[in-house]
Write a structure and sequence with these properties.
By secondary structure, the protein is mainly α. It has five helices and no strands.
Length: 94
């Protein structure tokens, strides 16, 4: 399990926007409209970012329950080790 999480985090690189989008999707139950409100962006922006996330990680949390659980774990990791980091350098810990 840890391998999959670390691999997904590495693939997302240092894109704070993508991590925030994952966090929003997780908090909003994968609802795109609610995620857009949560992030103060347009719904199409969430769809675009989700497409990038899917392409990078090969995960589809909206349609696959196991991928959704991985997103929840990524969100926990992001909140514990990355969120609020000025340099967003916590990736070196994985």
């Amino acid at each position: 399990m840890e391998h999959y999480i670390g691999e997904s985090i590495e693939k997302l690189g240092q894109s704070k926007e993508l991590f925030e989008t994952i966090e929003g999707l997780t908090d909003c139950g994968m609802n795109l409209v609610e995620t857009a409100k949560y992030l103060y962006v347009h719904r199409n922006t969430v769809i675009f970012r989700l497409g990038k996330i899917k392409k990078l990680t090969k995960l589809d949390p909206v349609r696959n329950i196991l991928d959704r659980h991985l997103f929840q774990l990524i969100t926990i990791y992001y909140r514990l080790y990355m969120k609020g980091s000025n340099q967003f350098d916590a990736l070196s810990r994985t």
